[in-house]
Amino acid sequence: MSEVLERIWQHQQISRVELVEHTGLTSGTITNLTHELIELKLIREFEAVSGNVGRRRVMLGFDPSLYRIIGLDIGRATLEIVVVDLNGKIIKTIERDMSDRKGPDDYFEVIDPLMNELKREIETAGHSILGLGAGVPGPMDYSAGSLLDPPNFPGWKGFPLQRTLEEKFGLVTLIEDDARTSAMAERWYGLGRSVQDLVFITMGIGIGGGVVHGGKIVRGTNGLCGQVGHMTILLDGKICDCGNRGCWETVGSIPGILSRWSGGNTMEQLKEAIRQGDAEALECMENTLGYLETALINVYNMYDPELVVLGGRLYPYLADYLLPVQNHLRSRLYAFAKDRLRIEPSTFGTSQSAVGAAALLFGFLLSEPVRLLALNDGA
Ligand SMILES: [Zn+2]
Questions:
Q1: Taking ligand 1, which is a single-atom ion, which protein residues have CB atoms under 5 Å away?
Q2: Contact at 8 Å (CB) between 202 and 179?
């Protein structure tokens, strides 16, 4: 069943005959499995015109009518909730500024009424919620479903987030580091449909990374895999929150960039100063791009991804420089790999983590549909 769902996801629309060809299962088995999936309202049939003769064929695709998934992003300055259907289409987005709120109690004062209202709204409309995904600043304790001690996120150390969300809202809940949720947004709903190996780099107040290899998130022994913001860029640089010295984050994140410029306190001000040709601002950006290039060449040589996706609140300020950065990278990369260099902006902009949190549940559905539906029946 999982394999059939995965093929349908990959192709978005596929016929039963093609499913037989792609999976190697017998047509009888495909008929039975697809019948069961249609009964479960996970997939549906529709007619599509195919080929140059314009013949109408019965195709299969995900059924967007019944199920909804909720994605929640708990950020340092913002809270975002999205509702998506089984095609990854965003049905609703809610955003709140959280910059003056500290710690879980403050956050749940906002989350509780929003979530309860949203659940009521979805259920009243006759939809069924498959589950809730949440993205949070890492690092995390995966066995306990809690946050470890995220930098610049006071009050959350050791907070049992997964259990709390499950108890409060009665939904199957998965939580993940926000850089990894962002990577999963691309993996399932964005550029990653045909890509098995990708690295998502999110740049904002901090710099995080999510590594997808063979279609799966790679966490590493201590959950630190893909912490690209903490690669050493300057041997004698500043001490970082992680304990290391000269991390990329200390010079390449928004606070890191602004700490190297005396002309203002915001990226907007820096952008304006660059536009006016201010020498110090130009030098600051030149160094920023140099650090970015160094970080990217390290990412390429370490992970050898098919695709690198850049996102986060800093990205819009770097977007104009992406082409020259890629050209420099080609001159620094192994010659045989340089033509395959592929760097793209995030598909979902600042909603990347919330969409990816929902995508965690979609990934669960594709790998273990029967178990997820059984958990829902028991919830
Ligand atoms: Zn660090």
A1: 230, 240, 242, 244, 247
A2: yes
- Beta-bridged to residue 266, according to DSSP, are none
Domain ranges of the chain: 2-62, 67-183+351-378, 191-346
The CA 247 to ligand 1 mean position distance, Å, reads 5
What amino acid occupies position 27? S
State the DSSP H helix or E strand holding residue 16, giving kind and residue range, or none if neither.
helix 16-23
Ligand 1 center to 253 CA (angstroms): 11
Q: Specify the CATH number of the domain 67-183+351-378.
A: 3.30.420.40
Question: Does the domain made of 191-346 have the CATH classification 3.40.50.1110?
Answer: no
Model confidence over 182-198: pLDDT tens digits? 999 999 999 988 899 99
Same fold for the pair 67-183+351-378 and 191-346: yes
The string of pLDDT tens digits covering residues 123-145 is: 999 999 999 999 999 889 999 99
β-bridge pairing 343-345 and 307-311: parallel
Calculate how far, in angstroms, residue 304's C-alpha sits from the geometric centre of ligand 1.
22
CATH placement of domain 2-62: 1.10.10.10
Give me ligand 1 centre to Cα 40, in Å: 47
